[in-house]
Amino acid sequence: MVHKMTKANVEISPLGRCTTPNQTVNALYWLGEDLRIADNAIFTDIAEHAQQLMVVYCIDPQWFRCAQYQADYVGKHRLRFLLESLQALDDSLNQYGQQLHIVYARAQDCLPHIINTHGITRVYRSHHSGADEQAAWQAVQQHCRTGIQFSTLATQTLFNLQQLPFDLDALPATFSQFRKLIDGIDITAPSDAISWLPPMIALQSQDKQLQDWLRYPKWLPQTHRLSNVFCGGEIQGKLQLDSYFASDLAHSYKLVRNELDGWEHSTKFSPWLANGSISARQVISALGQFESQHGANDSSQWIKYELLWREYFHWYGHKFTSTLFRFSGISGKKPLTSFYAKRLQAWKTATTPYALVNALMKQLNETGYMSNRGRQIVASCLVHELQCDWRYGAAYFQQQLIDYDVAVNWGNWQYLAGVGADPRGSRRFNLVKQQQTYDPHGRFIAAWLGGEALQQNDSNHTANIDGVDMADWPTA
Ligand SMILES: Cc1cc2nc3c(=O)[nH]c(=O)nc-3n(C[C@H](O)[C@H](O)[C@H](O)COP(=O)(O)OP(=O)(O)OC[C@H]3O[C@@H](n4cnc5c(N)ncnc54)[C@H](O)[C@@H]3O)c2cc1C
Fold this sequence. Notes:
- It is a single chain.
- By secondary structure, this protein is of the alpha/beta class.
- The radius of gyration is 23 Å and the shape is globular.
- The protein contains 19 helices and seven strands.
- Residues 257, 266-270, 273-274, 303, 306-307, 309-310, 313, 371-372, 375-376, 379, 397, 401, 403-405, 408-409, 412-413, 416 line the site of flavin-adenine dinucleotide (FAD).
- Residues 25-158 form the Photolyase/cryptochrome alpha/beta domain.
């Protein structure tokens, strides 16, 4: 049975939809940060238009070779969460008679070959806010034979390009202006579940090159579960969504969201949102249901507010493309910071003179997650106390965070470094005050630093990084 689409559950491609009636559609879906079947405009479109399908995810060997800013693109926590998410998606696809093919190669190298040799007539990809991802999409297109349709649909954002009440070039320079402009625009409800997917396109078993790409590679780092409660996959993401809104936590969210620790102090949706195991529209829909049953308050509304920040950064990524990674950010003003190897290393290895920062970095290193307040504190420390180039911090977060999201991460770092969408120009956190406010009894520090905590938390403690006595450095 072919799933019937209604106008309401179809996203319009940001580049224009390309449907050609009466032509056989052999589709290849190149997955990215859209690792789910529910509320996925691409699977909906495929169910309606395609006769055969191949679903592919590419794991690029370059991700694990120390790249720019002295960090890998994907660290062990992120990889573990990704592999769990891919396994879960494969399990779900099996129920539709489909399979996920993980290809261990750079997309630009392997996809044109697969597309050209398997009679693919249409390639799908989510509309991505990352400049590198967009460049890879263009590169794949350039190396394919002519006559193939390339279709991008919005699967990661609340709105699609056509729904925005301004041209992308006119995206406001601040979040508050953005919020005013989009206020009142209806957020489309999540699409209906698909009931069918086309049959699989068989892989060429004689193709030695392809078989090499499909073989589990030696270069893939080993992963194992550490002290981590986040488990990847669409079902796990949906469980977290359901359990959060089955409780009354949304009614106190705003009061506790700045806590440094505690599972219940924020929604913890970010890892699943970041790789698309759940959609932002599903979260908004679940929030709406919660509010209609239990009432809305300032706290529940604040969850939507934070999701709009995510939305803003996604369109910010679309607009500013590679400027997202520029030292002088979108402001064009170069910060008075530089690269200091020892300071950066101390920050990464949780050995700065600041106990709170060390505890937070230890949490990040051991779990791949850190609260929003924690991220602000450590980012401010790297930029304003250690006076390091913010891009090294952003790249380390990129490696470590299981919820890494290119636009949200680099956009937040720009903001903290004073080169982004902040009308105030810069955010410097007073570390002493932050500790007094968010860890007044030193419990968080003790939990993560254990025995080291007392020694590090001594306010007279002086340390020397890079020949500079950090105790002399102002924190106010
Ligand atoms: C320097 C820095 C880097 C960051 N890097 C990332 C990143 O790579 N990926 C990521 O998802 N978030 C990032 N954030 C934003 C934020 O810290 C996390 O989204 C949040 O801590 C995730 O936990 P949660 O899902 O419980 O959030 P909640 O507080 O429950 O918020 C709900 C959702 O709103 C969104 N959200 C919350 N805070 C922000 C924010 N400041 N900016 C944009 N969206 C937000 C997220 O999608 C989040 O899941 C970063 C923040 C900072 C300061």
